């Protein structure tokens, strides 16, 4: 796989390594914010190559793995609110990647399914996620990758517990709620 150069972002921490005064009591939080911003920016650049917006690939991943599902369940699995999910589904439907149908058993429910056209997109999304992973952790050893993942999962669990958000339970490998 050929590597493409990504634009360099300017870090928010001065070259001296000092945090802004107001962030000194939260250096981990400040770093998480900066890392998340850069990660989303790079993901967005890669996703534009395949005609997607950030988080739409997460919707597609769920549909490819789980098949047809209720839009409300899809929103829960992705961690999106109903309005955001509706907009994402509308855009994906317009692009021909998903189809919405009314449930025959519950007329209030809308079912969403990936279209055959989205299957070509799947390989592209897998490839760009591999590129993103390489940008993020390409120079880490296997041990460092495992340690990083474990720490991030602990941080996610702690944040979810304090936010009242059960989304940490829907991450890959965690049991469904």
UniProtKB/TrEMBL annotation:
<keyword id="KW-0804">Transcription</keyword>
<dbReference type="InterPro" id="IPR036388">
    <property type="entry name" value="WH-like_DNA-bd_sf"/>
</dbReference>
<dbReference type="GO" id="GO:0003677">
    <property type="term" value="F:DNA binding"/>
</dbReference>
<feature type="region of interest" description="Disordered">
    <location>
        <begin position="1"/>
        <end position="25"/>
    </location>
</feature>
<keyword id="KW-0238">DNA-binding</keyword>
<dbReference type="Pfam" id="PF01047">
    <property type="entry name" value="MarR"/>
</dbReference>
<dbReference type="GO" id="GO:0003700">
    <property type="term" value="F:DNA-binding transcription factor activity"/>
</dbReference>
<dbReference type="InterPro" id="IPR000835">
    <property type="entry name" value="HTH_MarR-typ"/>
</dbReference>
<dbReference type="GO" id="GO:0006950">
    <property type="term" value="P:response to stress"/>
</dbReference>
<dbReference type="InterPro" id="IPR039422">
    <property type="entry name" value="MarR/SlyA-like"/>
</dbReference>
<dbReference type="InterPro" id="IPR036390">
    <property type="entry name" value="WH_DNA-bd_sf"/>
</dbReference>
<protein>
    <recommendedName>
        <fullName>HTH marR-type domain-containing protein</fullName>
    </recommendedName>
</protein>
<feature type="domain" description="HTH marR-type">
    <location>
        <begin position="25"/>
        <end position="157"/>
    </location>
</feature>
<keyword id="KW-0805">Transcription regulation</keyword>
<dbReference type="InterPro" id="IPR023187">
    <property type="entry name" value="Tscrpt_reg_MarR-type_CS"/>
</dbReference>
């Amino acid at each position: 796989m050929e590597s493409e150069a990504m634009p360099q972002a300017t870090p928010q921490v001065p070259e001296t390594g000092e945090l802004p005064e107001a962030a000194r009591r939260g250096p981990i939080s400040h770093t998480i914010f900066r890392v998340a911003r850069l990660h989303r920016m790079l993901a967005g650049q890669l996703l534009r190559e395949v005609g997607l917006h950030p988080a739409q690939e997460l919707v597609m991943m769920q549909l490819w793995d789980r098949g047809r599902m209720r839009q409300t369940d899809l929103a829960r699995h992705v961690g999106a609110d109903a309005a955001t999910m509706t907009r994402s589904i509308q855009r994906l439907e317009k692009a021909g990647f998903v189809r919405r149908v009314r449930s025959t058993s519950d007329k209030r429910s809308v079912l969403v399914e990936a279209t055959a056209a989205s299957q070509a997109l799947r390989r592209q999304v897998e490839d760009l996620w591999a590129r993103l992973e390489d940008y993020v952790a390409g120079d880490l050893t296997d041990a460092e990758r495992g340690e990083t993942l474990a720490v991030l999962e602990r941080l996610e669990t702690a944040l979810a517990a304090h936010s009242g958000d059960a989304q940490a339970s829907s991450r890959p490998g965690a049991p469904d709620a």
